[in-house]
Design goal:
By secondary structure, the chain is an alpha/beta fold. The chain has one domain: Rossmann fold (3-Layer(aba) Sandwich). It has helices at about 20-30, 45-55, 70-80, 105-130, 155-175, 205-220, 230-240, 245-250, 265-275, 280-285, and strands at about 10-15, 35-40, 60, 85-90, 135-140, 180-185, 225. A seven-stranded parallel sheet has the order 3-2-1-4-5-6-7, with helices on both faces. Strand 2, helix 2 (about 45-55) and strand 3 form a beta-alpha-beta unit. The chain is globular, with a radius of gyration of 19 Å.
Length: about 300
């Protein structure tokens, strides 16, 4: 007998980094399922514009995920406006492209704080709120870079490996609690974050394709969420192959150098925005002298 999908109608979701790109597509997909959605984004104007476009069941609020007390206060505010949070999508993230040798301390710190530390905090907060109610779903956005390493994305790959490991551990901690965990691993998605990158032989995804996979995982809970879905079996097959064979296949698919030789002009706008995406973290880094090392990552 086929399983019936879990109803999402009337439930409350939070999407961090939901003002644009994949986050906005996720918010839109959840609204179509009848959910009430809170979009949090460091770009207040983008959050508010997205909420206005998506309708009255959506609120757009400022959120700097690197401000951990502020993140907690944001979640409190959402619950006071919309009710207990049923789904949290830890989506906020940045992806500067540079060789590790040339990467600045500021770039490394921002990625660690946004891509990993904030996801840890968002997951902790979700656990504390959902476990007592015996229900809820935590969705952490990782990447296929959380399963493989890519040249010029060393720090990004490290943070996404961390998100995968975090999610696996939390799944074990929450087993039997009624709270579900999913980790999402998209390939290259056509958003601002991938501007100027090369295309592999595998077609790039649209943000809506990732959002649809997340909705499917909420309706029919599962832990590993790959986009495209075919990436899961391919990774499982690759895992049993010798490393040289795996690398030869990646090279044949042009997947090993997608972040090598990128177009800096096309990426200029995104890289500039990413460099100012973690105000709270930058403030702390400045106090400790970390942000002073800002060699060009171009």
């Amino acid at each position: 007998m086929a399983k019936h999908p879990r109803s999402l109608t009337g439930k409350v979701a939070v999407v961090t980094g939901g003002g644009r790109g994949i986050g906005r597509a996720i918010a839109a997909a959840l609204v179509r399922k009848g959910m009430r959605v809170a979009i949090g984004d460091v770009d207040r104007a983008a959050a508010e514009a997205a909420a206005a476009a998506l309708g009255p069941s959506v609120v757009g609020l400022h959120l700097d995920v690197t401000d951990l007390p502020g993140f907690s206060a944001f979640l409190d505010d959402v619950e006071s406006r919309l009710g207990p949070i049923d789904v949290i999508v830890n989506n906020a993230g940045i992806m500067p492209i540079t060789s590790l040798e040339q990467e600045s301390s500021g770039s490394i710190s921002r990625q660690l704080e946004i891509n990993l530390r904030a996801v840890i905090h968002g997951t902790q907060e979700a656990m504390r709120r959902m476990r007592p109610r015996g229900t809820g779903h935590i969705v952490n956005i990782a990447s296929l870079a959380g399963k493989n390493g890519y040249a010029n994305l060393a720090t990004y790959s490290a943070t996404k490996h961390g998100v995968v490991g975090l999610s696996e551990a939390v799944r074990a901690e929450l087993r039997g609690s009624g709270v579900e965990v999913s980790v999402v691993m998209p390939g290259i998605v056509n958003t601002e974050i991938t501007a100027g990158m090369k295309e592999a032989r595998i077609r790039n995804l649209r943000p809506e394709q990732v959002a649809d996979e997340i909705v499917r995982a909420l309706e029919f809970p599962r832990f590993d969420v790959f986009a495209p879905r075919s990436a899961g079996p391919l990774l499982a097959l690759a895992a049993v192959l010798p490393r040289r064979t795996r690398e030869a296949i990646a090279h044949a698919l042009k997947a090993d150098d997608v972040a090598v030789g990128v177009d800096p002009v096309q990426r200029a706008g995104y890289e500039a925005r990413a460099a100012h995406s973690a105000p709270a973290a930058e403030k702390v880094a400045g106090v400790h002298g970390v942000a002073s090392d800002e060699r060009s990552a171009a």
